[in-house]
Amino acid sequence: MLLAASGPKILSISLHDGSLLSTWPETASTSTEGDQENEEPEGPPGKRRKLDASPEKSPNVTKLLVSHSNEHVVAVTGEDKCVRVFAVSSNGNLEQLSQRCMPKRPCAIALTADDSTILCGDKFGDVYGLPLLSSPEADAAAARQQEEAASKSFVPSATNLTVHSGRNRKALENQLKSANQQAKTKEPLKFAHELLLGHVSMLTDVAFVAFDEATSLDRKPRSYILTSDRDEHIRISRAPPQAHIIEGYCLGHKEFVSKLCLPRPGILVSGGGDDEVFVWYWQGQDPRLTDKINLRKAVFKALLKQPAQGATKVAEEDVTIAVSGMWTFESAARNEVRQTDVLVACEGVPALFYFSTLNTGALQRGADLKVLPLSGNPVDVAVLEDSIVVSIDNCHESGSISVARQDQTATSRLQAFVYAPNSEHDLGFSWRSNEKLDGHLQKANSQPTAESAPDPKALVDLLYGIESLRKRGGEEVEGS
Known about the structure:
Elements: E1 2-6, E2 9-13, E3 20-24, H1 31-38, E4 61-66, E5 72-77, E6 82-88, E7 94-101, E8 106-111, E9 117-122, E10 126-131, H2 136-151, H3 166-185, E11 194-198, E12 203-211, E13 222-229, E14 234-238, E15 246-249, E16 257-264, E17 267-272, E18 276-281, E19 288-294, H4 296-304, H5 307-310, E20 323-332, E21 338-346, E22 351-358, E23 370-373, E24 377-383, E25 387-393, E26 414-421, E27 429-433, H6 435-440, H7 442-445, H8 456-463
Antiparallel strand pairs: 1-2, 2-3, 4-5, 5-6, 6-7, 8-9, 9-10, 10-11, 12-13, 13-14, 14-15, 16-17, 17-18, 18-19, 20-21, 21-22, 22-23, 24-25, 25-26, 26-27
C-alpha cells in the first residue's frame, strides 16, 4: 500500500494493481463542512475556519509520516496549521482520529521510537511533543491547566511603593498594560502538549534517535532529538523529559541546513545550501565531521541535459545547491555485506544522487556519488522493501521551478525504481526502472486529484521553498 498526498487529498493506493483504495476527504467539496460537523478542531478558537455560503478552499497536505507500526499516519495541513492523525486499516481505509491546530505552521515532524509522541517543529524554532493518540481526559486536563495559567495576572517585582521617579512609574504602567493585553490575545492550546525545546533561528528539520544497550556508548538506553536551523546549526538534545539539556552541536555548515538523515543511529548525514552533504559521527561528547560528498559537479551535469537549462548555458560556478530531501535504503549485496544507500534530492534538479555506506555507517571504500536521472523534478520518495517510488512534479519543466510544463500528462507523477545487480559478473548494484511497478501505478497516475487549476505562485511556494532559506547579503534571521 502506498500513501500519497496531492493538494488537499490523501490517497491510499494498492501496489498490486495501482487501484485507488480510499481518498481522504471522500469529497473535497464537503471536507471543510465534514471536519466541522464530525469533529471540533483542538486548538485556539481564533484559528478555526468560519463557514459561509461559499466554501473555503481545503488546506494542502504538506507532510506525511507513517508510524513504525504502519497502523497510523500523521499529516500536516499547511494553511490551517493542523496536525492530523489517521488510523490506517489493512484494506487501505483512512479514519481521522484527531486534528490539532498549532500556534505556528509546522515545518517538520518526527515520531519517537515507540510511536507514542509526535515531535512537531515550527519555523519559529519551537519543537512540541504531542501524544500520537490523544484522549479526551488528557486534553481536558491540559485545557484546564492552560486556562488557569492564563488567568493568573502578571505581577511585576516593582510596585508603586518601590518606584519613585515619574519616568519609572510610567514604565511600570506600560509593563502592566502590555502583559495584561498579551494574556487576553494569546489563546492557549486546548490539548495535551509539551514545549520541548526551541531555537533562536528558523527551524528546518527534526529527527529522533534511540540507542539500546548494545549500541549505546555507556551500555544504557539513550534517546536524542536532533534539530537543524537556518543558521547552519545542528543541535543534539536529550529526549524528553530532559529535552532542555543540550548534548552538543555539529558545526561546519556555511549555509542553511535543510535536511537530516540517519543511515545508522550514530551516523548523521546533513545537507542544505552548501555544495556538499556532510557525514558526521555525532554520538558521544565530541561530534566530528567524517566526510563530505560534493554535489555541485553532478548537479551541474544533470541540469545541463535539460532543455529548460541547457539553452541558457549556466556556468558550473553559478549553480546553487538546495537539498530538498534525503532518504535511506538498506540492502544486502551479493557478498551479504549489508549497506545503506543515502538518496539525495536537490530543489529543481531532475535526478536523485546517491552513495553507499557500510553497516558501520562509514562511506564505502571507493564509492562515488551516483546519479539516477528522472523525468522531472522530485518532490518526495517512498522507500519500499526492494524499490522506491518517486513523486514527480509534472507541472513544471524538468530542471525548472518556474517554467510551466505544456503537456502535464507527458510525465507520470509517480515513478518506480528497483535496486538490482548490474550483471552476473559485476557485484555492484544500481537503481533502474521498475517496469512492473510502473505498470501498476498507471491507474494512480491517471487519477484526477486537484479541485481546480492551481495558482502558479502558490504551487511554487508549496513545492519549492528550500532556496528561500538562503541568506542574502547582510540579512539577519529574526531572533538571532
